[in-house]
Amino acid sequence: MYKKLTAIFMSKSMKQSYLVKKHLPKHIKKGHQILFSRQDLSVRETDMFALMIAQMTPEDWKKSTPVYEFHASQISKWLSIKHKHIGSNLSPVAKRLSERKVGVKTVTPNGQEEFDYIPFFKRLTYKNSKLLMVPNDELRSEYIEYKKGFALINTQNFLNLKKEYSKRLYELLSRFKTSGTIMKIQKIEDLKGLFGILDEKGKLKQDKQSFKKNSVFMKRCIRDSIKEISENSMTKKEILFLESKDGHLGYQIFKNSKKTSGIEFLYRWIGKDFGIEINIKDAQKNIKEMEIKRLKNKQRLTVEELKLLANSYYVINRSDIALEVEQGIERRLKDQNKNLKSIESEEMDMFLSKLQFLKKASGNPDY
Predict the structure, then answer these.
(1) CATH number, position 98
(2) Are both 127 and 13 inside the same structural domain?
(3) Closest Cα partner for 193 from 332, 80, 36, 31?
(4) 3-class DSSP state for residue 185?
(5) Is 173 inside a domain boundary?
C-alpha cells in the first residue's frame, strides 16, 4: 500500500502527521494576502519556503497545525544541491528563515494601510539530514484562504530562476494569468515593500541603503529581473514581455514631475489558459491547420481560433508572428465594438422617433 505519510513528528502534547508528496507538485498555490505582503528572503530561503507552500493544502490544517518534513535526498533533487553539501547549505538558511517575518497588509476602518509583521514559522530546523517545517498558526488564513484570489506558480520554473528579485517578480506576475486580468499600476514605494527593501516602519533597511535611488531599484529589482525571466530557458516559454512606447522592455514608467512614481508591467502569458499548456507538436499542428484554412481555403478564423494560433506561434518561439496575429485580434474586436455601437445608436434613434409620437398621443405629461 502506497504511504502518503512520509514521517511522523512527535511532540509532548500530540502526535502530528504530515503529508509530503513523493514528487514535487507542479504548481505552488499562493494566496493573494501572503503573495502581496512585505517579505525579504534570499534565494535559498525563497526556495525552501516554496517547497513547503507547494506541498500545502487547506486539508492539512483541518485537525491541527501541519508539520512538513523533507529528506535530504528530496531537497538535493528538487533544489539541485549536491547531497554532500546539503547540511552546510541548509542549516544556516533554515536558521535565518526561522527568524524571518512577513508584513501582512491590513486596512483600518478609516482606510489607512498598515502592516502586521508575523513570523513565517512556528518551528523550522534542519537536523539529521531532515528539514522540519512547522508553519505559524497566526498565518493560517494567509496560507490557505484564496477568497481574494491566488497565484498558480510553475514550481520547476520558479526554482530554476537564480536571483531572488526575479523569483519575486515571477510569482507576482503569476497572480494575473487569466484573460482580462493584469497587475494594476504599482507605486514605487509599494514595490519596494513587496521586494523587501523597506523595514517595519516603511523606511529603507540598513542593508538596503543603495536602493535609496530609484535608478538602483529599477535596475536590480525590475530590469535585471525581467532580463532573467525573459532569457531563462524555461520561463521565456511561458511569459512574454512587451516593449513600452518609451522603449522599456516589460514595463511603462509613470512620473510625477521628473520623479518616477509608478510602474505598469507589460507582459503576456503564453497559453490560452493558465492551466493549459500547448506542447510543440500540438502547436505545429494548430498552425498548419489554421493557416491552411485561412490562406488556402480562404476561411476567416474566429477570434478564439486566432487566440489559439497566436499562442501556438509563441510556443514555437515565433513571437514576431504571434504579435501580428494579436494585432489582428485587436483590430477585429475594435471593428466588432464599432458595429455594435452603430447598431445600438440606430436602435436608439428609432426609439426617440417613436417617442415623439407617443408624447403627442399621451398629451405629453410632465416628467
Answers:
(1) 1.10.10.10
(2) yes
(3) 36
(4) coil
(5) no
17 DSSP β-pair partners = 8
DSSP symbol at 16 = E
> Is the distance from CB of 16 to CB of 65 less than 8 angstroms?
yes
Domain boundary among 277, 305, 334: 277
More confident residue, 159 or 109: 159
Give the number of other Cβ atoms within 10 Å of residue 4's Cβ.
11
* Segment 340-359 mean pLDDT: 74
Same domain, 145 and 245: no
Are 46 and 167 in contact by the 8 Å Cβ rule? The answer is: yes
With residue 31 as reference, give the H or E element that holds it.
strand 27-31
Residue closest to 100 by CA, chosen among 33, 49, 51, 162: 49
More confident residue, 219 or 278: 219
Considering the entire predicted model, what is its pTM? 0.73
25-33 mean pLDDT: 92
Residue 102 maps to a domain: yes
Range of the domain at 351: 280-362
Nine cell digits for residue 181: 486580468
Structure confidence at residue 38 (pLDDT): 94
Contact 5, 21 (CB under 8 A): no
| 214-to-39, 203, 249, 258 alpha-carbon distances in Å | 19, 14, 17, 12
pLDDT higher at 26 or 343: 26
Report how far residue 223's alpha carbon sits from residue 248's, in angstroms, rounded to the nearest whole number: 9
What residues are paired with 35 via a beta bridge? none
Same domain, 40 and 145: yes
DSSP codes of every residue in 67-117: -EEEEHHHHHHHTT--GGGHHHHHHHHHHHHHT-EEEEEEE-TTS-EEEEE
The domain total for the chain is: 3
Pairing between β-strand 251-256 and β-strand 239-241 as defined by DSSP bridges: unpaired
